Amino acid sequence: MRALFTAATGMSAQQLKIDNIANNLANVNTTAYKKSREDFQDLYYQRLRSTGLASSSGDVTPVGIEVGHGVRVAAVEKMFTQGTFNQTQNELDLAIEGGGFFQVELPDGETVYTRAGNFKRNADGEIVTVDGFKLKPGFAIPQDALSISVSRDGVVSVLEDGQTQPTELGTLELARFINPGGLESLGRNLYRSTQTSGEAIVGIPGENGTGTIVQGFLESANVDVADEMVQMIIAQRAYETSSRVMSVADQMMQYANSLVR
Fold first, then answer.
1. CA distance 209 to 85
2. Cis peptide before 180 (omega within 30 of 0)
């Protein structure tokens, strides 16, 4: 009976949707987290009668008979819409207004990307992530620096003890991608470029769509809790409906078996 297997695909798809919603809600307070969305596709159709066949009377049938075999999750895509900004007044808290990414260097030398701008200073004065990965290009903040300033176009300056004018250390660079949805999520707020995302296009903030930098702010997760709750209810009802279909199909088989007896 097709209905048993078709209903099972529906239950499986809704289970994955619930798993994804759970992850979105779990990360509602994660800095610069980007929510994920599921894309569904219907499965193979069995054609019992093709459209346009001639009947015994010579008439052409306007429609055919096709029976579907369920649903599958075709993709789970990251939605890189802008999150809201929260003011922290921390000098090393940076938010990107636009579509860019900070560049981060892993211990093995690989460059990965992040939207989370909650940076710190290590023992050498270098700007690093909360996991100690270095910001790229790197900057070493002098130990006697009284303040750190990052302009919207990425110029990093420090005011050192005994000086009246700030000293420029360099310029931050941001990366953007033609297809950010194709980035590979690594956890820890990090992403890796892939064939589908395209190579990183690196530039100065404010140029070529990389976005600008806002100092003293952090980007919040772009998760809408109310919308996720609505989607959870929809997924739950769809799961219940599929399970009900499976129960009805089982009863029909039971009735058929009772006729044999």
1. 19
2. no
- Please spell the DSSP secondary structure of 208-247, one letter per residue: TT--EEEETEEEPP---HHHHHHHHHHHHHHHHHHHHHHH
In whole angstroms, give the CA distance from residue 254 to residue 247.
10
Q: How far is CA 40 from CA 16, 71, 72, in A?
A: 11, 7, 6
The pTM of this model reads: 0.88
What distance lies between CA 23 and its chain's CA centroid? 11
Q: What is the pLDDT of residues 88-126, one digit of tens each?
A: 989 999 999 999 999 999 999 999 999 999 999 999 999
Among 219, 202, 252, residue whose Cα is nearest residue 100: 202
Q: What is the pLDDT of residues 166-182, one digit of tens each?
A: 999 999 999 999 999 99
Q: Which residues, including other chains, have CB under 8 Å from residue 91's CB and lie 6 or more apart?
A: 147, 148, 149, 150, 215, 216
